[in-house]
Amino acid sequence: MAVYTHYGSIGGLIGAVIERGFADLASDMSAVGTTADPVRDLVALLLSSVRFAREQPNIYEILFVTSNLGQYRRTAPAELTAGRDSTLQLVVDCCERARAAGRFRSRSNGVALAYQWWSVSHGYILLELAGYAERESGTRKVLAPLLEAVAVGLGDDPVRTQSSLDAVLVLAGSDSRHD
Questions:
Q1: Per residue in 87-115, pLDDT tens?
Q2: The pTM is what?
Q3: Percent over 70 (pLDDT), the chain
Q4: Which of 27, 47, 139, 158 lies 20 to 30 angstroms, CA to CA, from 2?
Q5: 3-state DSSP call for residue 72?
Q6: List of domains in the chain
Q7: What is the distance between the alpha carbons of residues 161 and 37, in angstroms, rounded to a whole number?
Q8: What's the rounded Cα separation, in Å, for the pair 98 and 175?
Q9: 7: helix, strand or coil
Q10: Which residues are registered as beta bridge partners of 72?
Q11: CB neighbours of residue 130 within 10 Å
C-alpha cells in the first residue's frame, strides 16, 4: 500500500511511469545529436526509439499502446502530453530540416511529416515486440526499406537516402548492404 501513499492511486503510479518513460525516451533521442544530414538524423532518432523499445518493452507499451491497465483508463493530462510532445518535437525538427534542405518536397508540414515517420517506426516496433519481426534482421530487412520508401516518396534522391540509411545502420550494427 506504500504505492498508494506515494502516488495516490493506480492512475498516479501509471502517470509517473509515463512521465519518467517519456523523459528517458527524450534523453535517448536527444543523445543522437545533429549532423549536416537531416535524413540521417531522422533515421537515427527513429532507431533510438527502436532501441528504447527493445530495452524497455513494458515501458514502451505503456507509453504508446492504448491498452488499459486494470481499471485504469488512459487520459492525456497536460504534464504527460508535454513529455510526449518533447519526443515528437525532435522528429518534427528533423523533418523540417529535411524540407528546408530540399530532401523532402512534401506539402505536409513538419508535424504531419513527423507523424508519418513515427507511424512507420512505431508500427515496426509493435511488430517486433509481438514477435512478428526478427530483432536481429528486422531493422535491416523490414524497417530500413520502409524508411527508404518513405524518404524517396517524400521526394528525396534514392542515392542520398541510401547513403543516409547506411551511415546510421552501419553505426547501429545493422549494415543494410548485407543479408
A1: 999 999 999 999 999 999 888 899 999 99
A2: 0.86
A3: 83
A4: 27
A5: strand
A6: 2-171 (1.10.357.10)
A7: 10
A8: 23
A9: helix
A10: 69
A11: 8
